Description:
Layout: H1 13-16, H2 21-36, H3 41-61, H4 72-84, H5 89-108, H6 143-155, H7 159-169, H8 175-179, E1 191-192, E2 197-199, E3 203-205, E4 209-211, E5 214-216, H9 217-234, H10 254-268, H11 275-287, H12 292-299, H13 305-310, H14 315-320, E6 323-324, E7 327-328
Antiparallel strand pairs: 1-2, 2-5, 3-4, 6-7
Amino acid sequence: MARKTIMTRITSEEKMKQINPYNLRLKEDFLMYLKSVQRSPGTIYGYDSDLNIVFTYILDNLDNKEFQKLTKRDLIGLQNWMVDNGNSSARIRRVKSAISSLSNYCENILSDDDPEFDGYRSIVRKIENPPLQPVRDKTVWEEKELEALLNQLTANQDYERACYVALAMYGGRRKSEICRFKVSDFDPDKLICDGALYKSSPILTKGNKYLECYTLAKKVQPYLDDWMNQRKELGIDNEWLFPSRVDPNGHISITTINSWTKRFTRMTGKDFYFHSLRHYFVSALSKAGIPDNVVVQILGWSSSEMFNVYNDNSKDDQIGAFFSNGDISVPEHKTLGDI
């Protein structure tokens, strides 16, 4: 069964017309600012949706007051309302992040020019977040399960999907990042580390950052070759590795990628979502003996904290790698090709 997430649905076309025009104008100015500093369309869309929820809550519960007049008590009320309506702690943090970003815009940009914001200070960060709690069952993959999926896709000559899955398995990138891979990112001159890794050109990633993405070359090469050959047969001439279904010059959309997950869930018999392959990749690197700090560099994380989030190997498995036959054991050296 597909994973389910409770969403906050209080907005409507009718209510949007009733929201304080001042708040709507503030939101539009803020979104225009984000666009001017080149935040990703996905980030801007998310802020737009979340702020619509916030302003609708203000309409229904806070007399439609202007955003800058919100108090800490008002924000606590919003947070409590989201908790009571079954929203996850991660969802609440996301909405609060949108409020915080808008507040920072008001404090750092508008306070210098607009008398309405003279002396304004953001108060969102002073309100403690609810503790993060998992609300979905995590899917942990065995290599043989994912290899079986790749074999089925290949047997069906579904080379595009097989290539996409392989890149997720053996590169650990997010969906949006894989969508932004170009054909040129897998040219021979992109091979490094004696041919073990492909290193892409910088790709736009979460947080409006550009990162070079690494992929295990030998693991993905058969699926890349199949897809590139099929592209040639189909006459596809597009710089993006996975071309758009509607824009001849664009790349594939997240909506299309999301539609694939239902098929993969049926094929594997397990709840499939692409982020689980990010966990798989990190866990595979760790299990192969790649040091934590190297995994962090491969994924482009700014700290080692994320390693523990994505490493699904149990504590016993990690400790057990260094002990056998009742004694300390030095793990056998492995190469990236053994992963």
